[in-house]
Amino acid sequence: MANNQVDIKFPKGGVFFIMLAVVLIILFSKSTVTIGPGEGGVIFETLGDGINTEKTYGEGFQIVAPWNRMIVRKVRQQAISTEMNVLSVNGLEVKVNGTVWYEPEFSNLGKLIKTKGEDYERELLDPAVNAAARSVVGRYTPEQLYSSKRDVIEQEILDEIQIVLKDQFLAVKRVLVEDVKLPTTIRTAIETKLKQEQESLEYEFRLAKALKEAERQKIDAEGKAVANKILSASLTDKILQEKGIGATLELSKSPNSKVIVIGSGKDGLPIILGNQ
């Protein structure tokens, strides 16, 4: 049997166009970048001066030269949580758990990356937060850290961080101190003291309430005594007789059988007999 052979012949120049198409596809894929929501990008010019600090690219489809690289970072508000070992004003070591909200300056993203690197959180933000926390916490006692000074401490740490990061192209929006961990013995002593203070305040409240009630009763009794004195002084014999006569007249109108003896009672008041 004869072998049938099929010869496939490319058009003249076909191989060249295929190779050119492959090269174009590779170049296109390397020249396009999609920047997502809440992100920004800066160009690293491989054949130039490195990071281009003049322009920050926004969200969407971007085209760059294939020999350059687009560095994309989040530029929306972000948060980092950290645990720091710091010393109180009396030298006691405490652990502070906190969260920091921060946001890179969009227009200065290139300057931030050029001066602090792509990992600017570790290079810039973490040291600033730790330094501020140590400075602020070192002003307070463990009791103040544990109880009443939380809001003030948060604001002071924020103020310290903002001073350190001034003109560093990274804005810190808020600091939240979530927990302050003290040694067990210190925490127990503070909780016991706070409980005793609360009980003392409660006792003082009850005592003050009782004293006010006693004062009220005293004033009420004195008022009644004065009223009775005035009433007694106003009830003369003549007034009593008039009131007795008036009451007798009212009783005489009653249908019940009765005998009224006029002038036979004490002080000349009527006596009512046979009242049914």
Automatic annotation (TrEMBL):
Membrane topology: Single-pass membrane protein
Pfam family for this entry, one: Band_7
UniProt subcellular location: Membrane
GO cellular component, one term: membrane
UniProt domain Band: residue ranges: 30-194
Ranges that cross the membrane: 12-29
InterPro entries hit by this protein: Band_7, Band_7/SPFH_dom_sf, Prohibitin
Key words, A-Z: Membrane, Transmembrane, Transmembrane helix
CDD domains from the UniProt entry: SPFH_prohibitin
PANTHER family assigned to the protein according to its UniProt record, in alphabetical order: PROHIBITIN, PROHIBITIN 1
Protein name: Peptidase
Organism of this sequence: Polaribacter atrinae
